Each structure stands twice: as C-alpha cells, then as structure tokens.
Amino acid sequence: MKNAILHNLSEDNRRKIRMQQDTERFHRVVNGNYELVKYLPGSSIRIWYNVETTNFSTHWHPAFEIIIPLENTYTVKVSNEEYHLQPGDILIIPAGELHDLIAPNSGSRLICLFDSAIISKLNGFSYLMPYISQPILLSQDTHSQIYTEEANLLEKMCEEYFSDNNLRELAIYSHLLNFFVTLGRYRMNVENTFSYVHQTKQKELIDKLNIVFDYLDLHYMEDITLEKVANVAGFS
C-alpha cells in the first residue's frame, strides 16, 4: 500500500519544496564526529529534501533524526547495524547515536532533525525513552497498525515546515509529540508496561541526557569528544 508521504509529495509539491528550502544556509559544521545541526534562524527544526549522492561519514548530534526515502533506496548505518531503507520506510535515529548515511547514485529522501532538548524535559517523556532509545524502522510490514498514522503526521510536519504559517514550529512539535506518543503507546501494548525499577532507571537516563544537551549548548564551539561528554554526564 502506498504511504501518505509518497502519495502526497507529487512532483509539483517536491518542486515547491526545492524552491522554498534555504539551500544557502544548509552546510555541515563538523567537529570530529560531532555535528552542529544548522537550524534556520530562530528555529530548532530542520527538514531537508535531500537529493545528494554524497555520503555522510560517521557523526552524531543532539537531535532526533527521522529519514524517509522517497525515490530509490537509502542506507543508514547506526552503530554496527545497517538499515537498507526502501521508499516509504521511516527510520528514527535517537539523539547522540553515531551513524553514517550512504547515498545511492540517484534518488531523494526527507531528512528531519528535531532539537531533542525541546521535548526531552517534558513531564512524562522519560516514560517514552525505553521505546525510542534505539533506532526504530517503521514500515507497512513491521508496524502495519500505526504506519499510516505516523506517515500522515510526518506529512503534516513537512507541510507546516514549508508553509508561511507563523505558528508552524509550534504545530510541528505538536505533531512530533503525537508521533512519539503513538509509537510509545503501540510499543507499550506490544511489550506490556515495564516495572517501576525500569521506570526509575529510564528517569536517570533522561536526566543524564539533559545534562549532555545543556553542556553541548554551552561548549559546542570547543573540541568536543564522546569521552568528554561521557565524563560530564557520568556515563564513563
């Protein structure tokens, strides 16, 4: 079944997106393996209609990343696992994960980046962490019960991002929260609720991640290494 994103992103809509996205502001700033995500001024969201054929070597950033191939396949390596994405697949990469992006000779995909610090401190978000702390591949085959709903939410985020609506960022985060809540509830139902001890450990994890995000906000111009970040948060 054709998913909502592929169905609604006609060539006309894709042409509009290519014209609207600010290509001059999009350039990578990498310090070692750490990538400073270049959001548009006053924003904490980046949605990129990507047609590049170059690869992105191993990097990480304090942003959630969602990748959706539109035309042709796309390969993503997260830690030691490779994901060979088909058009319409939705891959969620948690903040802080080392990953590589391997492009085919042609094709297009949406690469969405969201500042994790914006939502990670919300009350209740720590309960979602067990379900989004590892890469997740959503497809019609793997998540048929929620796939269409999740794809529709991503489509709405894209529509808002490339609109002139003054409330677009607020609207995008409302859709993003709905996206994660839908995924979290689905996985809770599949795996059943976890114990209080597990919840406490996840609360400790989210607190440490927030320390990392605050540190990166203050020191992103410095020579940042994973070892230094691990020491700051007490992961080492």
Automatic annotation (TrEMBL):
<protein>
    <submittedName>
        <fullName>AraC protein arabinose-binding/dimerisation</fullName>
    </submittedName>
</protein>
<dbReference type="InterPro" id="IPR014710">
    <property type="entry name" value="RmlC-like_jellyroll"/>
</dbReference>
<keyword id="KW-0238">DNA-binding</keyword>
<dbReference type="InterPro" id="IPR037923">
    <property type="entry name" value="HTH-like"/>
</dbReference>
<dbReference type="Pfam" id="PF02311">
    <property type="entry name" value="AraC_binding"/>
</dbReference>
<dbReference type="InterPro" id="IPR003313">
    <property type="entry name" value="AraC-bd"/>
</dbReference>
<dbReference type="GO" id="GO:0003677">
    <property type="term" value="F:DNA binding"/>
</dbReference>
<dbReference type="GO" id="GO:0006355">
    <property type="term" value="P:regulation of DNA-templated transcription"/>
</dbReference>
<feature type="domain" description="AraC-type arabinose-binding/dimerisation">
    <location>
        <begin position="50"/>
        <end position="106"/>
    </location>
</feature>
